[in-house]
């Protein structure tokens, strides 16, 4: 019988015995004692089993004390007290089993993702076979969008989405002869590869085995109730024994054990934990069991994945760098039109960036895997993808764009019109807007160490770690090395691992608490975890840790207060003031008090409360930030255009940037100053919270006025170039910082606020 069903059966039996005995006693029937005794025996039998299991595991749990109390009531004939204890014991088990339906790590999602069938090339034919029948040396064909079934060597070139294994968010191009690991997704055209080993020995199969082994090694966290009982049990037995020894009356000893029955532990702690789990679920985090919530509440170390966890997990276009004479919006609209029907990962980033510009799908669209997409837009042949040259340019706007991409850790997407390169779209995986605020909240609740483990490149990982202020960054991690690092961190303290990908599943299983971001369908990670964040945001994690810590504090408080009152009752019982039955009733009063206190864990803690007007304001200005990104891009492009001096084209770009600032940016900043910031001051209780941001507005206006003075003198002169470039670059830097501060400090308060990506 399943533990949860057994608990419900036990509760039904003990409750029926207690109530039935009460009815018989009221009717004057001597069978009441038999009914109560039956209830006590019904509780004693499973309690002995549970206590024996605790002792075999080396734990001195609360169940041992319950066995002593139940056995004592039966020995001295205090059957009513035994029946009452039985009801309390069964109620505690029902609450606990309801909070612990999941006993182990389910790794079926890892197996389900692995393809069962593939295509083997035999001569000129393709034969569908079971993956298990593929041997080393067989030639396998993988179609677009399929998971690579075995490790192998590429026959031709290919493009792969390796994020599930390595955390690299952007597609990776592989040349003929390169090795490809099983578990990655074919992001290009159909490819042939020669299997280097059978599926059972592949990289993907190794990840599955690693996750299973990590789950088996992960010892469960001791129950909070058991830790209290380990100290309370010897004390209760000593007091009971002393009372018997001094008075010679075994009933005194039973009365002590009855009042010492750990109902505050058996009820108050599970109720507080269950209430905390309920509260966490309302915050968008499903915690699988009570042990996980307890561990989450005393977490000291967080180990985070990068791609899809602290970053968005998908590339977005952050800059549009154009050649002289080409307008940013025109180029972006043309690129979006061509990419509209492409399935390439980067195509989605281009389409999202161009969405607000309108445009219609290109015609005669052709996609060449590994090269790009070509189509006709407004009569022009537009190609989006790889650059048309074989050697990188050393000078000019294209060389500048390449340097910018390298410095920013971005991937350039080249746009050519009629064979001429006209723009580079820089794409990268950006940090989530809510990530920085989430990490600050985690530190505030007690986490002393936050580590980043990623399979991505060292440069990209270091950039993210520096921006978020992490304690340690480890790049180029494999699933096995992640597990080793997590095990090392666990030796320092209770460790929470947060991830969302297949490569994170073993580390999640190895952690004290594994937390998966499950909104994007990362079922392999979700089923290897102890908690799942249901939204595509990371800030619910901070709320769940805060809730878990609060639930644990309330549980400790309830257990401590309940045991303190029990000690007082034990003293009265030892001196003969409380008989066993009265002691059981007193214990019930104590139970009610601690249960009511434990139920506080389901209530929200004091926090910033967003009204409807506040949410609307935050969403409005967050959306305006997204629409203002072309202004920021225009400012940087204008500064870049001055590298060749005050040319006519440079002056056009500078004046255009200035006009965008005056028409769009300054009205936005002034509206924030007069509408948003006063509302935030009321929300946080003081206007001082926005003082530094107001200073940022003042600096932005100062730089725009300086730019205006440059332009008011007529045509630009060579003597103006140095200061003008400094002004524009300074303005771009201030705007970028100011936007980031508002997004992380204010806009991330509202669920669903758009990011600037």
From TrEMBL:
Record's keyword terms, sorted: ATP-binding, Cell membrane, Membrane, Metal-binding, Nucleotide-binding, Transmembrane, Transmembrane helix
Transmembrane annotation, as ranges = 6-27, 34-52, 64-92, 228-247, 253-273
Q: Which InterPro entries match?
A: ATPase_P-typ_cyto_dom_N, ATPase_P-typ_P_site, ATPase_P-typ_TM_dom_sf, ATPase_P-typ_transduc_dom_A_sf, ATPase_P-type_domA, Cation_Transport_ATPase_IB, HAD-like_sf, HAD_sf
UniProt-annotated location(s): Cell membrane
* Residues in P-type ATPase A domain copies: 114-210
Reply yes or no: does the keyword S-adenosyl-L-methionine apply: no
Its membrane topology: Multi-pass membrane protein
Top-rank taxon: Bacteria
Q: Where do the Hemerythrin-like domain residues begin and end?
A: 619-748
- Signal sequence region: none
| Residue ranges of coiled coil | none
**Has UniProt tagged this entry with the keyword tRNA-binding?**
no
The text of the family note is: Belongs to the cation transport ATPase (P-type) (TC 3.A.3) family. Type IB subfamily.
Name it.
Heavy metal translocating P-type ATPase
Species name: Kutzneria viridogrisea
């Amino acid at each position: 019988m399943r533990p949860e069903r057994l608990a419900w059966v036990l509760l039904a039996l003990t409750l029926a015995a207690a109530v039935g005995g009460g009815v018989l006693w009221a009717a004057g029937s001597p069978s009441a004692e038999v009914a109560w005794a039956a209830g006590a025996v019904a509780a004693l039998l499973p309690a002995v089993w549970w206590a024996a299991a605790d002792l075999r595991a080396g734990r001195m749990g609360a169940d041992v004390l319950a066995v002593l109390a139940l056995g004592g009531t039966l020995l001295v004939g205090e059957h009513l007290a035994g029946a009452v204890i039985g009801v309390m014991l069964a109620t505690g088990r029902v609450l606990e089993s309801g909070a612990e339906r999941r006993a182990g790590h389910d790794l079926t999602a890892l197996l389900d993702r692995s393809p069962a069938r593939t295509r083997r090339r035999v001569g000129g034919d393709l034969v569908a076979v079971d993956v298990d029948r593929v041997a080393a040396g067989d030639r396998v064909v993988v179609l677009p969008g399929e998971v690579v079934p075995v490790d192998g060597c590429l026959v031709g070139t290919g493009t792969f989405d390796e994020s599930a294994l390595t955390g690299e968010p952007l597609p990776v191009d592989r040349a003929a002869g390169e090795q490809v690991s099983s578990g990655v997704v074919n992001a290009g055209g159909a490819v042939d590869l020669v299997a280097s080993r059978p599926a059972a020995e592949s990289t993907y199969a190794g990840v599955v085995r690693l996750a299973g082994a990590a789950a088996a090694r992960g010892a469960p966290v001791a129950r909070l109730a058991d830790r209290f009982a380990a100290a309370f049990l010897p004390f209760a037995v000593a007091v009971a024994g002393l009372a018997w020894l001094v008075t010679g009356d075994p009933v005194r000893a039973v009365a002590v054990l009855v009042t010492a029955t750990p109902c505050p532990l058996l009820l108050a702690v599970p109720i507080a934990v269950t209430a905390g789990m309920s509260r966490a679920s309302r915050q968008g985090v499903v915690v699988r069991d009570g042990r996980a919530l307890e561990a989450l509440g005393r977490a000291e170390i967080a180990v985070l994945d990068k791609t899809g966890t602290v970053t968005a997990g998908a590339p977005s276009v952050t800059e549009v760098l154009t050649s002289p004479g080409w307008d940013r919006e025109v180029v972006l609209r043309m690129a979006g039109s061509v990419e509209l029907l492409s399935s390439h990962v980067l195509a989605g980033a281009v389409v999202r960036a161009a969405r607000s510009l309108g445009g219609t799908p290109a015609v005669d669209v052709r996609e060449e895997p590994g090269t790009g997409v070509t189509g006709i837009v407004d009569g022009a042949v537009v190609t989006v993808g790889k650059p048309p040259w074989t050697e990188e340019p050393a000078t000019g706007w294209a060389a500048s764009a390449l340097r910018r991409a390298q410095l920013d850790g971005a991937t350039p997407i080249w746009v050519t019109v009629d064979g001429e390169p006209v723009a580079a779209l820089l794409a990268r995986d950006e940090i989530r807007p809510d990530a920085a605020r989430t990490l600050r909240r985690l530190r505030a609740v007690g986490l002393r160490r936050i580590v980043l483990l990623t399979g991505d490149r060292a440069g990209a990982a270091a950039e993210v770690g520096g921006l978020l202020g992490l304690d340690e960054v480890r790049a180029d991690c494999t699933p096995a090395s992640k597990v080793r690092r997590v095990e090392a961190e666990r030796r320092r303290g209770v460790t929470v691992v947060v991830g969302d990908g297949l490569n994170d599943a073993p580390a999640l299983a190895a952690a004290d608490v594994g937390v998966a971001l499950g909104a994007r369908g990362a079922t392999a990670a979700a089923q290897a975890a102890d908690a799942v964040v249901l939204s595509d945001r990371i800030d619910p994690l901070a709320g769940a840790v805060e809730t878990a810590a609060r639930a644990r504090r309330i549980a400790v408080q309830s257990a401590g207060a309940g045991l303190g009152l029990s000690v007082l009752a034990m003293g009265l019982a030892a001196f003969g003031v409380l008989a066993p039955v009265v002691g059981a009733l007193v214990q019930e009063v104590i139970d009610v008090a601690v249960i009511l206190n434990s139920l506080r864990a389901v209530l929200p803690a004091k926090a910033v409360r967003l009204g409807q007007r506040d949410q609307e304001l935050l969403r409005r200005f967050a959306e305006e930030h997204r629409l203002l990104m072309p202004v920021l891009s225009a400012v940087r492009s204008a500064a870049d255009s001055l590298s060749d001096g005050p040319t006519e084209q440079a002056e056009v770009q500078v004046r255009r940037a200035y006009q965008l600032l005056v028409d769009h940016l300054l009205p936005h900043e002034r509206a924030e100053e007069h509408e948003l910031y006063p509302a935030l001051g009321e929300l946080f209780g003081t206007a001082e919270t926005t003082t530094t941001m107001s200073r940022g507005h003042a600096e932005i206006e100062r730089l725009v006025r300086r730019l205006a003075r440059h332009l008011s003198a007529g045509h630009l002169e060579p003597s103006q170039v140095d200061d003008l470039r400094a002004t524009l670059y300074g303005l771009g830097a201030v705007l970028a910082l100011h936007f980031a501060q508002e997004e992380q400090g204010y806009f991330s308060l509202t669920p669903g606020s758009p990011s600037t990506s």
